[in-house]
Design the sequence.
C-alpha cells in the first residue's frame, strides 16, 4: 500500500510539472486578441535572436500568457497609452520544447561570431546558463513571464533602455550604473508601470517581468505558439 502511494505521488508530480498539449489551453489568452494595440515582435519566431535561428515551438508571432497575467498586462498597456506609449513584446509564454532547444544550442560549437557579438560578447554559450541569463526551467513556460519594452506611439521608436533585448551582459542589469540617466529613467518607468499591476522584475534583465503570485507556479506548459 505504501509503495502504491509513493508511485501515485511520483506520477502526480510528473504530470503537474510538465503539461504537453496540441494547442493553447482554455486558461491561457492570446494578447494579440486581448490587447491588439500592443506591438508583437516575438523575436524567437524569427531568426533575429541570440541563437540566430527560429526557435522550436514558435510557429507564429502570437503572445500567450495565463489569463491572470494577460489581463494584468492589458492594464499596463492602458496605463502606458495614457503616457503616449505602447508595449512591445519580445517574448511571453515559451514552450518547454523551446527551453530544451536553448539547452541543445548551448552544447554546440560557436558558428556565428556576428550573432555572438550582438548578444553575448563576454560569455560562451554554456556560461549563459551558468550566469543565470538563460534558465533550464523558465517562468515563461509557466505562462507568467513576459519580455517587453516601451515604444512611443507617435514616432514608433522604442524608448532607449541602454541595451538591446537579450543582450547578455551586466549592462542589461536593470539598475546598471553603466547606462545614462535618461536610459535609467526609461527603465524605471517600465518597472513602475509593471509593478503597479503586479509584475516583478528580474534584476539581471531590464526587459523581463513575472506576474506575482504566479497562477501555475509548479506547471510547465508545452503547446506550440501558433
Sequence:
Amino acid at each position: 500500500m505504501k509503495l502504491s502511494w509513493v508511485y501515485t505521488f511520483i506520477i502526480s508530480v510528473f504530470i503537474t510539472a510538465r503539461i504537453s498539449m496540441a494547442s493553447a489551453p482554455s486558461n491561457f489568452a492570446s494578447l494579440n486578441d486581448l490587447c491588439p494595440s500592443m506591438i508583437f515582435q516575438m523575436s524567437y519566431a524569427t531568426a533575429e535572436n541570440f541563437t540566430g535561428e527560429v526557435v522550436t515551438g514558435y510557429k507564429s508571432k502570437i503572445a500567450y500568457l495565463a489569463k491572470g497575467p494577460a489581463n494584468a498586462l492589458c492594464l499596463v498597456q492602458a496605463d502606458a497609452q495614457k503616457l503616449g506609449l505602447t508595449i512591445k513584446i519580445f517574448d511571453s509564454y515559451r514552450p518547454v520544447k523551446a527551453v530544451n532547444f536553448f539547452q541543445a544550442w548551448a552544447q554546440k560549437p560557436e558558428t556565428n561570431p556576428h550573432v555572438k557579438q550582438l548578444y553575448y560578447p563576454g560569455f560562451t554559450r554554456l556560461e549563459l546558463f551558468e550566469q543565470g541569463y538563460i534558465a533550464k526551467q523558465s517562468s515563461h513556460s509557466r505562462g507568467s513571464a513576459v519580455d517587453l519594452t516601451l515604444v512611443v506611439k507617435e514616432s514608433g521608436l522604442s524608448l532607449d533602455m541602454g541595451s538591446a533585448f537579450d543582450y547578455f551582459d551586466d549592462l542589461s542589469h536593470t539598475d546598471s550604473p553603466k547606462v545614462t540617466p535618461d536610459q535609467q529613467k526609461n527603465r524605471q518607468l517600465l518597472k513602475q508601470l509593471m509593478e503597479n499591476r503586479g509584475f516583478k522584475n528580474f534584476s539581471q534583465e531590464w526587459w523581463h517581468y513575472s506576474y506575482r503570485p504566479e497562477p501555475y507556479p509548479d506547471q510547465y506548459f508545452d503547446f506550440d505558439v501558433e
